[in-house]
């Protein structure tokens, strides 16, 4: 019987691109797998209806519903891209995978997508530079009370261990490029900067220049396909509290990104000056990009000091680099002008429920 894979957040930027990459696999163990796509709305479900996927308009906050779905469809692997800060969703998925494991005797796997902001000093990470081969779980546990992502990360590790669910923790960086999903095809970060620049008629920067760690969405989707292949092949990989994987393709300073972005927007007549101004306050940043103040710096001036040592285990070789990214910034502008800033589950999850 073909393995069954559930991708949560399949209407989103990362989840949609992963689902598309899995569907397009022409070789390896992912070819012929049954892909299940969990989405939040009927509109997202409709956008996926023409693909060879099992679309589930699934409330991930409903524990019984999630358990029933994973059991009745014999889900082997859940790739969770729906949220990195909602512990209820994560725990419901783990509960469902654990129930399926108990009912069938087969291994069940959770691939959880978190974020490298967990290791940034602006989110009160106290331990400085870190490698994904370090005792990351132990360090996150010691600092979990100061940042929600670390709280959820450690909770997931602990519950997977207690439930016998095999776990892989994936930490993508700031992403760029047009996704290959059917609903949300843009990342919130770069398009939000473009939107803010156009709205304010100039581009702003933070007073300190930090290095952005980046990857193209196509490279990230390719990593997930490699990981699923390795799991289905039966490879012995670091997992559980040892299963942290940092993903980075290239680095470039935020000021350099903004300078080049300002030059391109000015050339199109979309802003009044190619020169950068410093943001007057983080409150102004937050209002411009549409997030609570406490998340503005961590999303648009993030610079975690990390080293990726595990990404090569799977033979992951990113195709994009710094030079390509900077030379293709006009593509980012074109995509934003064509698609606008899509509704983002990531940005929504950062807002109080009363504001959604």
TrEMBL record:
SUPFAM superfamilies documented for this protein: NAD(P)-binding Rossmann-fold domains
| Occurrences of domain NAD-dependent epimerase/dehydratase (ranges) | 5-230
Pfam families the UniProt entry points to: Epimerase
> Organism source for this protein?
Aspergillus lucknowensis
The domain of life for this entry's organism is Eukaryota
Q: What is this protein's name?
A: NAD-dependent epimerase/dehydratase domain-containing protein
